[in-house]
Amino acid sequence: MKQILLILIISGFAIQAASQKEKYLGVALLNTQSYLPFGKFSGMFTDAFHPGVEATFGMNVNVRKKHDWFWDLRLAYFYHRFVQHGIPLYTNFGYRYKFNRRISVDAALGAGYMHSIPATAKLKFNGNDNYENNKGIGRMQANVCFGVGAGYWLNQESKKPLKLFITYQQRLQLPFVRSYVPILPYNSFMIGIYKPLTLKPDKKN
User: Considering the domain boundaries, does residue 137 fall inside one?
Assistant: First the structure.
């Protein structure tokens, strides 16, 4: 767990130090389903709804006409009914291919910390013929993830453009319960907006 926290700290400093890179902010709504890796897509829209939200602060570390490499730091929250409240904090490194000025696809690999809070009562016997609350503040977990997605610039000509994106992500939470479910897999579908932090230059200048 200390190694995961160290990765997050180093990533945060690296993003902040790269003042000349193209930085961006993002926010997304998501639905999460517990299932085998990349084993559930249609269920995102038909099965039980496990909602969440995710915020992103990132940068394009290498920009070319058709290709970008990007790196970001993400904080999310999701609710898995009867199981847990999940709070992932993780970093992503990814590749983006641009078909044209508006449309792109990407893939990213990430890892980081995840805080798990039970979504139901957790009791323990106190030795005085009574049970007492034992939920506490939750458990420290690790998570790794891989996602694929697509983006579309809504107003590419503006100085303050917005990018609509969708992502289909697989997350592995570990160790969930060492005795019988050491790894808990999640499939997530996200839809959100990215906004650059720097203005586009005026073409007249």
Answer: no
